[in-house]
Amino acid sequence: AKKQNGSSCCFFQPSMRVDLNRRLVIEKSLSGNVKELGFYFVVQPQINCDTGELVGVEVLSRWNHPTLGPISPIEFITIAEETGTISNLTNCLLKDVFSFINCTKNQGDIFPKTAINVTASLLSSKTFFKELFLLMEQNQISSEQIEIEITESVELTYSEITLANLITCQSKGISIALDDFGTGFSMLSYLMDYPIDKIKLDKSFVSKIGQDEKSEAVLKSLIQFVKGVGCTLLAEGVETQEESLFLQANGCPIHQGYFHDKPLLPKDFLTKYIGVSNQ
Ligand code: C2E
Ligand code: CA
Ligand code: CA
Ligand code: CA
């Protein structure tokens, strides 16, 4: 039986109205011209600590909305995925990322491999990859420059189309990274079902370094496991020198995280890493 005056019979509270409004504003903005509404991206370096070399960058979306202010990518990506506007958003992002990659071309600089997050609905889309390949061709982006990050944090159910898409990517030379490894629903089945080149070890494992021995043992075993599977390994969310040294000492030298660098605006990245200052 329901309480007569408890919160259980109050289906619509003012705070819910605020949430609903917020969601509606985000939804509406997502179907418009997101670039004019404060959508942009940053890039975070990936460093090989054994060599000091910059091995890649991950593209991360940002949104400074005109009325809502900064919105977390978790929030707007989830809404975009649910409402079907993720392809618009990702295509808009790709265009900007490709011109960013190309802006150093005439200087003859080699741009590092650039990783782009692709959600489950796009992975199983028949049109998304066609558009991606077309955009790459139009912008003269070679396949070796691009990495696709697939995440298991949202349940990625097995799909024949996803498999076919990933095989096509790989055969062209685009690499596939499995994101947030260790946190998802069935990490081993993705690894067996899909062609994976790189594993991104989730930051939850990294943050336990120096805190508890059992977690360190799990981490060491995971590093050996990934080696055995033959994938490239990267540790995410490396925040301290202690974490970085531990990972390096245990056979995982490629790191992404605040200890090495935070996500940077493209112009700042170019100045700092590529030596281009005229952006
Ligand atoms: P992710 O793909 O796992 O990206 C890594 C997240 O960790 C980023 O959060 C990054 O800013 C953050 N990070 C980097 N280094 C550190 C560190 O040392 N410590 C900690 N605590 N965090 C660190 P961000 O940018 O807020 O993005 C959150 C998530 O939103 C991403 O997680 C990704 O799943 C999603 N996302 C962001 N941009 C895009 C996009 O363009 N497309 C799609 N589909 N998803 C995106
Ligand atoms: Ca990612
Ligand atoms: Ca991740
Ligand atoms: Ca930590």
Automatic annotation (TrEMBL):
Residues passing through the membrane, by range: none
Annotated source species: Planococcus kocurii
Name listed for the protein in its UniProt record: Uncharacterized protein
Domain EAL, first and last residues per copy: 23-277
